[in-house]
Amino acid sequence: MAAAQRFFDKAVAENGDPDKAAIDAINAGRAVPIVVRQVKYLNNIVDQDHRAIKRVTRPMLARIDLIHMIRKGQFAVDGADEM
């Protein structure tokens, strides 16, 4: 969070304060205007959309790590030599 704040402070120092007039100028030439919504939880929609993907990929990542460990000889199972 501190890095983001430093980046924002640097951008404002170099370019000046953000101006809503820039969005208004862009919207003047568009059929569908850009609407800037100041809502704190807009990113939650994206996170919720990826919830099913996360549920599938997390166990898969554990299995991939286990395969790499077996291949490198970092994981030993009792009785594996007998198989």
Give the overall pLDDT as a whole number: 79
Taken in chain order, the helices and strands follow as HHHH
Count of alpha and pi helical runs: 4
Number of separate strands: 0
Strand content: under 5%
Low-confidence segments, given as residue ranges, are none
What would the principal axes of the Cα set say about the shape? elongated
Task: Summarize the biggest pleated sheet.
Answer: none
The helical percent reads 55-70%
* Coarse structural class: mainly alpha
Distance between the termini: 52 Å
Taking Cα atoms only, what radius of gyration do you get, to the nearest Å?
A: 25 Å
Characterise the protein shown here.
With 83 residues, the protein is mainly α. Helices cover 63% and strands 0% of the residues. It is built from 4 helices and no strands. The chain has helices at 2-15, 20-28, 43-49, 51-72. The longest helix has 22 residues, at 51-72. The chain is elongated, with a radius of gyration of 25 Å. It starts with a helix and ends in an 11-residue tail after the last helix. The model has no long low-confidence stretch (mean pLDDT 79).
Task: Write a brief caption for the model.
Helices cover 63% and strands 0% of the residues.
Sequence-ordered SSE layout with sheet pairings:
Layout: H1 2-15, H2 20-28, H3 43-49, H4 51-72
Task: Describe the structure using short key phrases.
about 80 residues; 4 helices; elongated
